[in-house]
Design brief:
The chain has 163 residues and is an alpha+beta fold.
Length: 163
């Protein structure tokens, strides 16, 4: 009996995750969740439930969704698939900066180790492993600003919509 909704926060200009009526955005972005998500994602019943929930959200149309198996398992027929990546060190630095801004007590090494371990678990798990869909466009944003990445993605969406 899980419901997941998204509410746009005009102040932060970002969508926030609402779980069973409670805003859990800050909780799900914390290190404790990151540290356990790969283990939980390996439980088949959890993946099946989450995929069903994500697909239900997708029925609303015009949805942008990110995740490690969105293009391969959740929406294999999506009109546009992007496989966005960066080096482990860059991703760890970005995540570290985000966590420090939230006043979490953590080291860069802990974040890097967690990310590397998560990548390994997600790539090698039996249920819905992480890999690039054959028809996904690869974007390595290691050297891109968020503005350049977003402009690139906006161009891809515009091109896809005009086809």
């Amino acid at each position: 009996k899980i419901t997941i909704n998204f509410v746009f926060n005009a102040e932060t200009k970002q969508s926030e995750t609402i779980l069973n009526g409670e805003n859990v955005e800050q909780i799900i972005r914390g290190f404790e969740v990151s540290d356990n998500v790969s283990i939980i994602a390996q439980i088949q019943q959890v993946r099946e439930k989450l995929i069903a929930l994500q697909q239900e959200i997708g029925k609303q149309g015009n949805v942008v969704m990110d995740g490690r198996d969105i293009g391969t398992k959740v929406f294999p027929d999506a009109k546009l698939k992007l496989f966005v990546t960066a080096s482990a060190e860059i991703r760890a630095q970005r995540r570290y900066d985000e966590l420090i801004e939230k006043k979490e007590k953590i080291t860069y090494k802990e974040v890097l180790d967690n990310l590397t371990q998560r990548d390994n678990h997600d790539t090698n798990r039996k249920i819905n492993p992480l890999f690039q869909a054959k028809d996904a466009i690869l974007i390595d944003n290691s050297e891109l600003s968020i503005q350049k990445q977003n402009a690139m993605i906006d161009d891809l969406i515009t091109t896809k919509l005009s086809e």
